[in-house]
Amino acid sequence: QISQPRYKFMNANKDWFLTWPFPKSFAWSYTPLPVRMGYIKNNGIIPSKYGNAELMKIPNFLHLTPNHIKLQCESIKRFCTPWPKGLEKDDICRKFFPLSITVSDYLIDGPLSLNEHSRNVLMKINLSSLSLDKFSREKFVKLSRNYYKKDMLSLELSSCPTRKQNYDHGIFLLTALVTESKKRECWEAERCSNDIDEYIWNFSKSKLNLEKIMKVFVFIYFFFIKTILST
C-alpha cells in the first residue's frame, strides 16, 4: 500500500520550525503549499510541485520564517554581551575606535551564491586620530594623494580575490603610510620654500628682506644717534 504524502495529513497548527528546521532542497511531499514552477507546454498550466525538479534546483527560504529567526536569535543570545556603557554616541565611538571598516554581504537566490563585490573592503580613518606632528601630517597627505579628503583617509580595496586578503592589504597600506610619514630623511632637512605647500614665515624671502631692512635701519639709527652726541 502506497502511503499518502505527508502534507495531506499535517496539522495546520503544527510548528513549521519542526518540519523545516534548516536549509535544504525543496521536498514536495511535506510542503503544504500549492507551489508551481516550470515550462508551460501547449498553452497548458505550470507544472505542480509533485516531482518537480525545477523546484529542487533553486535555493528556498522555507527555513527563514519569522518564527525561525526568532528562535535562532533566542538561541544565540546567550553568547552575546551587552553594549559597553559610555559608547552610546557615534562621536564617542569614533574617538576610541577611529578606524572604520565597511564590508558588504549579498544574499542571492540563484544557483551561484558568490558575489564578486563581497570581497570589497572600505577603510576610513580621521587623520587627526593618528597623532602626527605637522611635518608628518604634511608628508602623510602627500603620500595618500587622492585617497585623502577633508581630514579623512579612504581606502577602497578590491584587488585581492578574498575579503581577508583585501583587509590585510589595507592594514599594511595604513601601517606603511604612518611609518613612512614619521621617518626623517637627511635630504628632507634641505627643503626650501618651493617645497612647502603653505606659506611659512621662517622659510619666506619676506623674512630675509625684512631682516636686511632692519639691519640697515638699526645702522642708520645708531649712526644718527652717534652724530648727535658728537656735536
UniProtKB/TrEMBL annotation:
Q: Which GO terms describe its cellular component?
A: mitochondrial small ribosomal subunit
Q: Name one GO molecular function term.
A: structural constituent of ribosome
What InterPro entries does UniProt report for this protein, alphabetically?
Ribosomal_mS35_mit (IPR019349), Ribosomal_mS35_mt (IPR039848)
Q: Where is the Small ribosomal subunit protein mS35 mitochondrial conserved domain?
A: 115-184
Q: Which Pfam families match?
A: MRP-S28 (PF10213)
UniProt-listed GO biological process terms: mitochondrial translation
Q: Name the chain's protein.
A: Small ribosomal subunit protein mS35 mitochondrial conserved domain-containing protein
Give the source species: Helobdella robusta
Source organism phylogeny: Eukaryota, Metazoa, Spiralia, Lophotrochozoa, Annelida
